[in-house]
Amino acid sequence: MTERMLRLLYFAWLRERVGRGEESLALPAEVTTVAGLRALLAARGGGFAALAEGGSVRCAVNQDLAGPATPIGPGDEVAFFPPVTGG
Amino acid sequence: MTERMLRLLYFAWLRERVGRGEESLALPAEVTTVAGLRALLAARGGGFAALAEGGSVRCAVNQDLAGPATPIGPGDEVAFFPPVTGG
Amino acid sequence: MAVVRVQAEPFEMGAEFAALAGGRTDIGGVGAFVGQVRDAADGRRIVAMTLEHYPGMTERAVSAIAAEAEARWSLLGCTVIHRVGRLLPGEPIVLVLAAAPHRAAALAATGFLIDWLKTRAPFWKKEEYADGASAWVEAREADDAAAARWQQLPA
Amino acid sequence: MAVVRVQAEPFEMGAEFAALAGGRTDIGGVGAFVGQVRDAADGRRIVAMTLEHYPGMTERAVSAIAAEAEARWSLLGCTVIHRVGRLLPGEPIVLVLAAAPHRAAALAATGFLIDWLKTRAPFWKKEEYADGASAWVEAREADDAAAARWQQLPA
Predict the structure, then answer these.
(1) D57: distance to nearest CA of chain C, Å?
(2) DSSP string spanning A7-23?
(3) B1 vs C23, residue with greater confidence
(4) Which residues does chain D have within 8 Å of residue C38's beta carbon, measured at their own beta carbons?
(5) How does pLDDT run across C114-132, given as a tens digit for each residue?
(6) How many domains does the structure of chain B reveal?
(7) ipTM value of the model?
(8) CATH number for the domain whose boundaries are D3-152
(9) Chain A: nearest CA to D101, how far in angstroms?
(10) Which H helix or E strand runs over A59?
(11) β-sheet bridge partners, residue D98
(12) Is residue A87 in some structural domain?
């Protein structure tokens, strides 16, 4: 079985809370959407709990803003971050 | 009898139509407001007809915008001009 | 106190911006507007634009408009420079800068300043066309409508 | 095509303005906005502000916002420069310029660009305070409300 690898990125206070700016993740077969990935990561607990659906953390898949139903697959770059505050 | 002198100024197309940028005017005793002055000047005819009350020409007395009832007196600077178009 | 100038010479956007806001730690946002001479209007080719004004009243009127903006939006400063005389297409005519703690006030004050300048300051434009003719620019109803927006209190 | 830059270095307002609009005879008005670091927020003294961003997505998101503005207001050009890294009070953070044939479009596009930048581009601010503490700036409802104004079609 080929591993389905994702690249994950974290920014701002989320990066600080999860203790890393990025990681590689072998995606379980049953995880096919942003919602599924959020549940998987939130289950790690600690700083990752902030990723649970319904919180303030936003998601982008391959650098486009993504909703819960956005599909994810091998090779995708998936970023999680707080509401933006630039400008 | 002392002459009651006014300084009159004209701008933009009004200046061109009346053929002068400024003049001194001895004010008749019965002319005490902008409305009276407009009537006096409009009666000259030609380009001055544009000064008649109800036209588009605006008036300033001593460099403040003025209405028909604004009083005028000796030594005043009274300017007439079209609607402004700067900016 | 607002910086107000009526001048024949060009102005330098960067220098005016720096004079108003450079290094100031109380300013969060600066709004700006520059008006330029275009080379066409209503399909006619423009070769030059002459700005006439009412010396003495002009500075008074512009200063009053700037003071009104400073009071309405609690500005930390503003700059209004309006050129007079004969200008060529591509040349800047007017510069407005408004500085405030936050962007909403800076941007609203910038719009107010240029809208009121266009309807309350004694400047008149005359266009020269490519065929040798010339004509005074007529006041536009759209400018009056834009200025009338600000009769209400600011949001 | 919009000029979009994300950079650590300061920008020069005058140079950017000249690059966009200098001598152009089709531009009637240029709107601008500059955001600066303030030395206080909510009563706390700020000694520095660090801007983090999402390299790659940032340029994409800002370019998309600029393209949207150019299309909505038929702009003749626009410039968006956003700084990243550690900045001190008084330093400029962001520059927006929007050029159009007439002022209404230039000013509206300027407001749109900064409002959307603040709510749609992946930048995050962290403030350092005089007492040594630091905190990430929280998103403001007022910014969302300002951005939401532009969901409607332009006037």
Answers:
(1) 25
(2) EEEE-HHHHHHHT-SEE
(3) C23
(4) 25-28, 101
(5) 999 999 999 999 999 999 9
(6) 1
(7) 0.93
(8) 3.90.1170.40
(9) 26
(10) strand A58-61
(11) D31, D78
(12) no
